[in-house]
Amino acid sequence: MISPLDVSASALSAQRLRMNVIASNLANVNTTRDEYGRNVPYKRMEVAFQEMKQDGRVSGVQVASVQSDANPYKWIHDPDHPDAVKDPRNPNFGQVLVPRINHVQEMVDMMLASRAYEANLTAMQVTKSIGQSVSRIIS
Fold first, then answer.
1. What is the DSSP secondary structure assignment for residue 12, as one 8-state letter?
2. Which pLDDT score, from 0 to 100, does residue 116 have?
3. What residues contact 103, with CB distance under 8 A and at least 6 apart?
4. I need a labelling partner for 67 at 20 to 30 A (CA). Which of 29, 45, 50, 53 fits?
5. Using the 8-state DSSP alphabet, how is residue 43 labeled?
6. What is the pLDDT of residue 29?
């Protein structure tokens, strides 16, 4: 039997991971180097969900993947940045390659994930309350 608590718990877990990924995107908005010190900017990450099934019925949600955004990096003009292109013959002279992360989009995604988390938490509380009421009626 599929438990409504399990369905909500799976959604809570998935949304928590989504919020962590969004927080990572916001924290790395200006990261122009990778963990090895190479001049490779942070790549925005996205979370993809998929339904879980049990006996042919939807039994919850899970994270299918956390993948990098397909959009390219962007160039910004900042000649004083240590990673700015220093060669005057280069068409990107004085520019820095940075992650393509939109603060507004990330904040909207964070609010949506937060609201989904709250909704599933409320669903769990209602399910628990109903179960307690049924137990009192049966006893």
1. H
2. 96
3. 26, 29
4. 53
5. -
6. 95
Residue 35, in any domain of the structure: yes
Task: Please indicate, yes or no, if residue 31 is contained in any of the structural domains.
Answer: yes
Joined tokens for residue 33: 């180097």
Q: Give the CA diameter of the chain.
A: 84
Q: Are 52 and 61 in contact (CB under 8 A)?
A: yes
Residues 110 and 20 sit within 8 Å (Cβ to Cβ): no
* Beta bridge partner(s), residue 67: 46
Domain count, the chain: 1
Rounded to 5 degrees, φ, ψ at 122 are: -65, -40
What range defines the domain where residue 126 resides? 4-71+102-138
Beta-bridge partners for 93:
85
At 18 the pLDDT is: 98
